[in-house]
Specification:
By secondary structure, the protein is of the alpha/beta class. Helices cover 30% and strands 27% of the residues.
């Protein structure tokens, strides 16, 4: 047996009706993640450098659907019409490839498996160096039992040596075509569950390669729901906030929701909590909802001396109503005095309580400005905050 790598084509089987997937378009033309299933599957093979051409088998009624969803690409051969069964469709594709005479290896793949990886394609192609066929498989890991017609559990089934077959299934084209033709002549194409079964029945040397759980077949409505979850791209937003307040007469400062003893106070319309003000702006900014001054104007007397925890809680409620989840919050306080370190954990806990977060998602840090500028001259305190928001529908 020769050991050189065969020139390889992909044969994508897309002629089925997919009735178990529910009403609507045939499943290969339905969208997941904003792209038709067939287009996503083809993309994996078009992008693979070891696939030299792609033959697609479609239902005779689906040419308009095919043309609408499949982009032009030099690797794609004109589609051929399939038959009444999967095996008949595969045979039509094999014959079309054989007529071209340009390839001697073929990877047969279900259009409804859009998550095939480059690594899996490589494993199947590599296996054809020393075998007439290769089949992607996953070992059975769940307990297996017989179930009778009434749905009652029967005897256990040993998992030893039991695997689940996937696609792609790779073969030497000429040998597989002979096996299919002989099976067709006997009228038994429909008796075989997949291509490897026909190959095995005709004595081809077929080896197993490692499959992947992510390479599942879209069959039932819940499979499409799972595919959408896998493809969902989170809407991640980042917001920043900055605030500064000057010192004034007093005996404490309010920072990040707690009272810290000091020989001065902070001047402001509310409680002048620079930490919570910066954090409120960061959260509002991440959701593009304005700033603290728009929601709580300093000219409004009702906010005179107000607890800034109210501002922060309001911002959190707004972004959650918009569908966002707070991922983490980070505040940096800039001052020479008072010392923040001894109070940082209590500050984190207070912010976490206001925002309904785990304290592990809240950071409070402090730095000096090396005696430079407004903060270095101890004229006041500044704060810089950032917030990460995930999700959302705004």
């Amino acid at each position: 047996m020769r050991s050189t790598r065969p020139r390889t084509a992909a044969l994508i089987v897309a002629a089925g009706r997919g009735t178990r997937a529910g009403d609507g378009l045939p499943k290969q033309y339905r969208e997941i993640g904003g792209q038709p299933v067939l287009a996503r599957t083809l993309g994996a093979f078009v992008a693979h450098p070891r696939i030299e051409m792609i033959q697609i088998v479609i239902h005779s009624d689906d040419r308009a659907l095919y043309d609408d969803c499949v982009p032009q690409n030099g690797k794609l051969l004109p589609p051929v019409a399939g038959g009444d069964s999967r095996a008949e469709s595969v045979l039509a594709g094999l014959r079309a490839l054989a007529e071209r005479g340009e390839t001697d290896g073929v990877l047969i793949h279900d259009a409804a498996r859009p998550f095939v990886s480059p690594e899996m394609i490589d494993r199947v192609v590599n296996a054809l160096n020393g075998a007439e066929g290769a089949l992607a498989m996953l070992p059975a890991v769940d307990a297996m039992r017989h179930v009778d017609a009434k749905g009652r559990i029967g005897a256990d089934v040993s998992r030893a040596g039991i695997c689940r077959a996937q696609t792609p299934q790779g073969f030497r084209l000429a040998r597989l075509l002979d096996a299919f033709a002989e099976t067709e002549a006997k009228g038994t194409l429909a008796d075989h569950p997949d291509d490897a079964a026909i190959a095995f029945a005709h004595g081809l040397d077929v080896v197993a390669v490692h499959g992947e759980a992510a390479n599942f077949k879209l069959t039932m409505p819940e499979d499409f729901a799972m595919a959408e979850r896998l493809l969902a791209v989170p809407d991640v937003r980042h917001g920043q906030g900055f605030d500064v307040h000057a010192f004034c007469e007093g005996d404490h400062v309010t920072l990040c929701g707690i009272s810290v003893p000091h020989d001065k106070g902070l001047s402001g319309h509310s409680d002048a909590d620079v930490g919570l003000h910066a954090l409120t702006d960061a959260i509002l900014g991440g959701a593009a909802m304005g700033d603290i001054g728009q929601h709580f104007p300093p000219s409004d007397p009702q906010w005179k001396g107000a607890d800034s925890a109210h501002f922060l809680a309001h911002a959190v409620a707004l972004v959650r109503e918009a569908g966002f989840v707070l991922s983490n919050l980070d505040v940096t306080l800039m001052c020479e005095r008072p010392k923040i370190g001894p109070h940082a954990l209590v500050m984190r806990e207070r912010i976490a309580d206001i925002c309904g977060l785990d304290v592990a998602r809240v950071s409070v840090k402090a730095t000096t400005t090396e005696r430079l500028g407004f903060c270095g001259r101890e004229e006041g305190i500044a704060a810089l905050a950032s917030a990460c928001l995930i999700g959302g529908n705004v």
